[in-house]
Amino acid sequence: MTTKTGVADAGNLIITGVVLMLIGDLLFALNDAMGKWLVASFAVGQVLVIRSVGAFIVLGPMILRQGPMALFRVEQKGLQFIRVFMATCDVALFYAAVAYLPLADVMTFYMAGPIYIAALSHFFLGEKIGWRRWLAVLIGFAGEVIALRPSTAMLSLPSLFGLAGSFAFALSLVMSRYLRSTSDTTLVTWQTIAALITGIVLSIGHWQPATLIDWSGMLLLGIVATCAHLLITRSLKLAPASLLAPLQYTLLLWAIVLGYLFFDDIPDAQIIIGAVIIVVAGLFIFHRKNLKETVPAAVPPDGH
């Protein structure tokens, strides 16, 4: 009976991780659309600075709750630094790429993330990936390419920003899983501080006046992004990274919905076909994953 209960609890944790990842992806889709709108008028550094200030609106109470000194009591400081560096590169490179390329092109690069994560999880986290799920990940990526139709602009220098950013994003997610004993608040706070410092440096000589709406948009960007980071960081503590990675494909579905709602973009047949392929591949991967896989028996609500 105890064994069955433990298996059920493990399965519930994994399902919770999947749900949190899906919600986090929705918020990231909102973040992407808002970010592209903002970097069209303001320097990347300025957006990063105000975005980071907005992030502390969410993080402030959490830091006070766990105690500021807890931020300095972390495991494996070297790996923590690398994770923060990768997370900062992810944000900065994404905004740098989306400032010059269509959002769909940049998202295409980032959809390679699940492939990176699956490979990295196999080597660094010891998560076994069967050939069927490897094939499903590749098919899902093929569906992404069909739907987004990469343009010739992807051969430009900004495309390298997108490729590097997507790899940095994937590596930061894998390391979040590896460092799962560190609290969510600590993980996200340090990457926010790094983004703030990077933004200050990049904004020197490029700061521009803004309206109240613009300032509000940049602050809201930080709030949305922080909530997304917290949800995804938490999800990686509850479920294997190789299972969660393909769920990043839902970003395309949200892009279609948000594009229709806010930009009056109606998806054509090619986008719909690609979206169907992505969803089917993702569901197949979820079906193949063994929900009885061992996960931490108890992960406290505060992430400690």
Alpha carbon gyration radius: 19 Å
How much is the average pLDDT? 78
User: Fraction of residues in helices?
Assistant: over 70%
Q: Which H/E pattern describes the elements?
A: HHHHHHHHHHHH
Which spans of ≥5 residues are poorly predicted at pLDDT below 50? Answer: 290-304
Largest sheet: none
Spatial separation of the terminal alpha carbons: 28 Å
Query: What coarse outline follows from CA principal-axis ratios?
Result: globular
> How many E strands?
0
Query: How much beta, percentage-wise?
Result: under 5%
Estimated structural class? mainly alpha
Number of continuous helical runs: 12
Layout of secondary structure:
Layout: H1 2-39, H2 44-66, H3 77-98, H4 103-110, H5 113-125, H6 131-148, H7 157-178, H8 184-203, H9 212-238, H10 241-244, H11 250-263, H12 269-288
